[in-house]
Design goal:
Length: 470
């Protein structure tokens, strides 16, 4: 494998991330190297890496063979890899809030040792299970006397504003962040919160006044705003006060939706004990056949089968569901128990995350980023086929896109849940929804290793190996 530049790191002119056969590398310019050397002498940096708050990082020797990357760089860093890359528009509310807290805490710690973060993108944070990890070491630079925190606007657009619109308006931030990799502007946020939440900490200062200031300084290209702020005495004390104010605003936000479509629902609730046991046995057998595997659990709901996969020997699990509240609750539960091997994400399988940003490559699609060894697709097919009207062949194609072994459940047309969905449809529209057509579609892309009809007789489980394309 040749070394390739990460498509999401090109916006920093002083450093660039590369994926190499030896691992993750970051090229540093001379200025970036000087910043890193200053960072490496601080106490907070080493302590943050020990806690796992900052990705493991080391400076490579010039004669280290693994330091060879494209370009003319003054030095090269090696970073510990993150198993699965996720993006803010796939996180539930509480995940984004925890990522925001980490950004602010690290920036305050840096400021106390004459460093600062030059930006504040939520894409600079990744999650290892439920633990947020700051990955953009190139973001730290030496602070400059009299200059404001350059990351303030970006923090508002990619952390605070998304949390505000969901907390105060119950508007999911995920579609808004997916609509623009730059986040939600102060003006847009102010428009979503007209006359609302002015008593909520941070709204007036960070939204209303921020939007007004943007209009006032719209001619910033003709004005030296930094010089104006320096003359006004902007320094570390004011920046720290700003960071503390933002942290209070973040801590004061909660999302109080009590229920959602799937929050009080479990597909297990109508299973007979024998059916559930057979389903659990099939999942455990599939995972045990691929020890130390990465498992993708589609339609994870409360994470029952994700936890089962871990007990069966999976290295880690990506648990996805389309219901924001369900995933938020799962994240809180996992965080509370200290579980760091399950990554819960918000994902609508009928509209999975596409490639976004510059040339539609800056933020890769979900299928490109998540490359599991085993895929669990349980109690999902009938919803995709009958609610979202996705043809059976297309459902199979999506599963094959992951290039992994699968355990997939097909509810027959006479299954209680399938029958309920079919009764809502016009008669004759879904005649192709049957076992024979499903198995024909499945056999086109997979080799069926094992199939088991559950004791109840209305659902069949298939354990399959993906066929190589071509």
């Amino acid at each position: 494998m040749a070394s390739t530049a990460d498509p999401g790191s090109f916006r920093d002119p002083l450093s660039r991330v590369f994926v190499t056969p030896a691992g993750i590398r970051r090229g540093l310019s001379t200025e970036a190297l000087n910043d890193y050397r200053a960072l490496a002498t601080t106490s907070f940096f080493a302590q943050a890496m020990m806690r796992g708050d900052i990705v493991g990082t080391r400076l490579l020797d010039a004669d280290d063979e693994t330091a060879a990357i494209p370009g003319d760089w003054a030095a090269v860093l090696a970073h510990d890899p993150v198993d699965v890359i996720s993006y803010p528009y796939e996180w539930p509310f509480e995940m984004l809030r925890d990522a925001a807290r980490l950004q602010l805490r690290l920036t305050r710690d840096a400021l106390a040792e004459r460093m600062i973060t030059k930006d504040a993108s939520s894409y600079n944070v990744q999650f290892v299970g439920t633990r947020p990890v700051f990955i953009d070491v190139g973001s730290f630079e030496r602070s400059r006397p009299g200059e404001p925190w350059a990351g303030y606007r970006q923090f508002c657009e990619l952390f605070l504003n998304p949390l505000l619109v969901q907390a105060l308006r119950d508007v999911p931030f995920q579609p808004l962040l997916r609509g623009s990799v730059h986040g939600i502007s102060p003006a847009t946020t102010a428009g979503l919160l007209p006359g609302t939440g002015l008593s909520t900490k941070g709204v007036f200062t960070h939204v209303k006044l921020h939007a007004r200031a943007e209009r006032r300084y719209s001619d910033a290209d003709q004005r030296d705003v930094k010089a104006e702020l320096k003359r006004a005495g902007f320094g570390p004390a004011l920046i720290d006060a700003q960071l503390r104010n933002l942290l209070k605003a973040i801590d004061g936000l909660t999302w109080k939706r009590p229920r959602s479509t799937w929050s009080d629902y479990s597909e297990r609730s109508h299973y007979a004990d024998a059916d559930l046991q057979a389903k659990e046995a099939a999942v455990a057998a599939a995972v045990r056949a691929r020890p130390d595997s990465l498992v993708l659990d589609l339609g994870a709901n409360d994470g029952h089968f994700s936890r089962l996969a871990l007990r069966a020997g999976a290295r880690s699990v990506v648990a996805v569901d389309s219901d924001h509240l369900v995933v938020d609750r799962l994240y809180r539960d996992l965080r509370g128990s200290g579980e760091q091997c399950i990554l819960p994400l918000v994902l609508d399988l009928s509209d999975p995350s596409p490639g976004l940003g510059w040339r539609s490559r800056e933020r890769r699609s979900f299928v490109e980023r998540v490359r599991p060894d085993v895929v669990l697709c349980l109690a999902v097919v009938h919803h995709l086929a009958l609610t979202n009207t996705v043809p059976l062949e297309e459902i199979v194609a999506l599963l094959a896109d992951f290039g992994a072994d699968i355990v997939v459940e097909f509810p027959h047309p006479d299954d209680e849940k399938s029958a309920l969905l079919l009764r809502r449809k016009r008669q004759g529209i879904f005649e192709r929804y049957n076992v024979a057509n499903w198995e024909q579609a499945l056999a086109e892309r997979f080799t069926i290793r094992e199939q088991t009809t559950l004791p109840g007789g209305t659902r069949t489980l298939y354990r399959c190996a993906v066929r190589p394309v071509g």
